[in-house]
Amino acid sequence: MEETSLLCLLFLISLLSCTTNQARLTVSPSSSQFFKRDFVSLSCEEDDSSAGWTLRRNTSTQQRTQCGDGWGKPAGYLCNISVLFIQDAGVYWCESREGPISNMVNLTVTDKSVILQSPVLPVMEGDDVTLLCKTKTTPSNLPAAFYKDGSLIRKQPTGHMTIQHVSRSDEGLYKCDISGHGESPSSWITVTGTLTTTTLPPTSALPPHSFSLHRVFRVVLHLVVFCPYLISTLLMVSLYRHRAKGNYLHPSVSPTQQQGLDYKNNDVTTEHHS
């Protein structure tokens, strides 16, 4: 009974430690590129709760600073940046006290006159994705050219381009150009399958000093995937040993008592035959 209770307790502890809910970092307006002096609101959202998560970022000048520590204004589970500056460009993520982290978002802030509005989160295979090339002061329906990995894809008269039924081959670095206004910065678009996993842009698209965090995040993901298999293996081994032990000893009889009972049974058998 005590061994069974211990196994149950270990199972519950392991289950709780390995099924920690992961928060999602969302960005509003939904874009990875912003003009200087734009407004942005970021939030750490969880399926059942938004408490216990802290928004952090890496920039070219600061590492692992949290919202309210010299940047942003906390408002519940939101973090509002009322005026964006070039130094606000960087990698943002949510982090809990227990250690798990959310998806990472790479935000670009530019003082140029053209930006590309593209999905800030990974897109699912088979979905349609719309890219918008816009300027800061003029209407967003000007003719624009769209590029992927440095090569021209197409020119659109309205400044919108829709990629229908995206696949893994559509993953890459995108930018746009509006004649007479200039070229946008580049943004990485990630395409993921049915199993939603966080995919980061290549290290060349990340700001300096963020690579170590990238590696840590990969390690955490592998541990979360491996943990259920470890639990099931330990449980099977423990149950096997428990059953094997039960085949030789009665739970309430010690080995010494069992040996004494064997001697008594042999004496009774001898007297019966005599």
Describe the model:
There is one protein chain. This protein is of the alpha+beta class and 274 residues long. It has a domain at 112-195: Immunoglobulin-like, CATH 2.60.40.10. The chain is 27% helix and 31% strand. The protein contains 3 helices and 19 strands. It has helices spanning 2-18, 211-248, 255-273, and strands spanning 24-28, 33-35, 40-45, 53-59, 65-66, 73-75, 78-81, 90-96, 105-110, 114-117, 123-124, 129-135, 144-148, 151-156, 160-163, 172-178, 182-183, 187-189, 191-192. It has a 5-stranded mixed sheet with strand order 2-9-8-4-5, with no helix packed on it. Strands 13, 14, 16, 17 and 18 form a 5-stranded antiparallel sheet that branches. Helix 1 packs antiparallel against helix 2 (211-248). The two termini are 42 Å apart. The model is unreliable at 1-20, 195-222, 248-259 and 263-274 (pLDDT under 50).
